[in-house]
Amino acid sequence: MKDDFFRANPLSVDPDIPLYQQLYSHLQTAVLTGNLKPGMRLPSTRALAILLNVSRHTVLNAYQQLIAEGYLAGMVGNGTFVAQILPDHLLASPQLKERVETSSAEPDKPRFSDQAILQLTAPRILTAAPSPAEGLPRPFWFGIPALKSFPYKLWSRLLIRQARRLPAASAFTYQYAAGFLPLREAIAAHVMVSRGVHCTPEQIIIVSGVQGGLDLAARLLINSGDPVWVEDPGYLKARAAFLGSGAKIIPVPVDHEGLVLEAGIARAPQARLVYLTPSHQFPLGVTLSLARRTALLDWARRADAYILEDDYDSEYHYTRRPLPALQALDHDGRVIYIGTFSKVLFPALRIGYLILPPPLVEAFRTVRNLIDTHPPMLEQAVLADFIVDGHFTRHLRKMRSLYAERRAALLEAAREINLEIHPPEAGLHCVAWLPEGMDTLALVGEAAIQGIDIAPVSHFSIEPLARDGILLGYSEYGVEQIQDGMRRLAIALEAV
Predict the structure, then answer these.
(1) What are the start-end ranges of the H helices in 333-439?
(2) Which of 197, 285, 309, 341 allows an S-S link to 424, with CB 3.0 to 4.6 Å?
(3) Rounded CA gap, 283 and 185, in Å?
(4) Separation CA 350–CA 376 (nearest Å)
(5) DSSP H helix total and E strand total for the chain
(6) Which of residues 9 and 213 earns the better pLDDT score?
(7) Structural domains in the chain plus CATH codes
(8) What span, in angstroms and rounded, lies between the C-alpha atoms of 364 and 218?
(9) How many CB atoms lie within 10 A of CB 386?
(10) How would residue 303 be classed by pLDDT, with cut points 50, 70 and 90?
């Protein structure tokens, strides 16, 4: 047997009871409860004595008594094992039954903080997306880039090159909490060209995806009870991050121009923070209008509030040039820009970034260091090469073309089965609106039976919706998969 059982179940020492008797009882209970399985080999007396920091004589006495009573079996030259069959009279002993029942009883429920309970009870992302062991998701799950089209061989070459190039003396020690400087320089150059964002590398902090950025901002900017505006419907994990800091969540409705600013002001005029996805609102896909962007920045300046701009799916626009980032219009240091490479490269990369107003940089960098010191080094170095060498821009260009083709296939297939979709200008999914009164959860179940996975818009909403819809992701699925999936969806719709 491995030593894992004894490390996970240490011996509790009672000074009034001989050690060998305590070890005897410890092992006896483990055998009766099944924690030590029949036929399992135990450590040698010498090895167990060293592991438990007791004398070998103590272990020997305990083993001998257990062998004599039929719990263990000793084989000369081959070690000590748990008996394959326990005598009936041992299992029938009232004292032993009581001990087994006590040891196998459910432990007391863990005690969590109030903020943790709020997070644990918040709505969670639907579980239709498979675990890594199950493979890639089925149509029409959302939020997954075209992983089969990622240049893995190129990435592997860059990875090997960086692993050989990085000097062990400096690359293997602790790094800057803000992240790898060449990567921050590459990001600063990229967002200036692609999103109109103006910043220096010093304003950038590398985080573990968008979620890492949201958690860091919540820690630094929210006190318990502070009102925080969130889009409704909106991103559930953002809401959970703010709840973890004790925020009072203020749902703000979304219409065809994005966040309804007047509703937010009416509900919480002195909100501490606003979280929104202005380039491609999640999940509805609308874009925040220029007039509302200007009005939101003006309100944030007057209210001394910060705006968390999650530039979700901004890289994928299909009909016209996208509006500049909200941060590009900010002249008062109210916007914190959040970006990620999970949707444009691959989710497992777990590299995102914050672009901060200068007065916030030092505090964010300090707290970032307290959380987990700094992000991993090698992946940052590879990503920096991927951007600087031009591979990132070429990959984006290729993916825009691929996603535009798949988006067109989805819209055409939806028209054939009379699904109502208002195509968004950007993103990797569309929303199909359902007839009023349709049982959305029943549709989700029927779709799963047909081999497709969909998520209702209502799952992401705090307040009731006048009409429900479903998210249809298309980025990871080929044209034939999309067409077949839409036929299956038609069958599910007919069944409901």
Answers:
(1) 361-372, 377-388, 391-416
(2) 285
(3) 31
(4) 10
(5) 19, 14
(6) 213
(7) 4-104 (1.10.10.10), 168-389 (3.40.640.10)
(8) 11
(9) 22
(10) very high
